[in-house]
Amino acid sequence: xYTEHQPHIALRNYIDAYWTVTTGRLVxxxxxxxxxxxxxxxxxxxxxxxxxxxxxxxxxPEQVYLVGTMTTYTDxxxxxxxxxxxxxxxxxxxxxxxxxxxxxxxxxxxxFERELxxxxxxxxxxxxxxxxxxxxxxxxxxLLLQEIIGSxxxxxxxxxxxxxxxxHYLTPRRLERHFKEQVGVSAKAFSGIVRFRAAWHKxxxxxxxDMAMLAEECGYYDQSHFSNEIKRYTGLPPGAR
Length: 241
What we know:
Blueprint: E1 2-5, E2 15-22, E3 30-34, E4 40-45, E5 50-52, E6 57-59, E7 63-67, E8 74-78, E9 83-89, E10 109-112, H1 126-137, H2 144-154, H3 161-167, H4 172-182, H5 187-205, H6 211-217, H7 223-234
Antiparallel strand pairs: 1-2, 2-9, 3-8, 4-7, 4-9, 5-6, 5-8, 7-10
Protein name: AraC family transcriptional regulator
GO molecular function: DNA-binding transcription factor activity; sequence-specific DNA binding
Keywords: DNA-binding, Transcription, Transcription regulation
């Protein structure tokens, strides 16, 4: 069972959600496909070993993992009697709590510090303890990148890097450095994820989709480009929604 919990109101600009995955007795492991969303997650494994990713990565028990920004889909395989607790950060907001650079973390699942395991995440009231922990860690510094990310989301991924840099008084090189360090991918790659999410949302809302028209609406070069991008992010052709 997958469940989401809202963080404290003072954290909602930085943390999208706390989430849990809990399984009881299963005949077969629960397999699910996870699509890119531009977010970074911390995952605490409180149960049995979980398998994730095309490379069959293992999330070992009683460990915390940093899952970097995804640029393609991944499949997770959760066995019986599992419990995962996750923190999904809004794009660019990980730096509000941790000084670690995210450069090189895209599509990676990396062992992280185990301090979160001290919060008794398997017991009642764990969300309040997470709130207290992250409120203590929250940096008051201005996060310029979140403003830029807001512009990308507002334009559904259809802004050029040069335009973004100019509007926020940065050089393109400096803008890319901020993205690599605080998001883990380039501004162009992040914009592609945002554009995909906008297109995928429209596809799922519409029963009969004119793919050529949707491709044009969402800013793709043509229907072929659109189809290739959807397949890259989901592993499925557009018609297999």
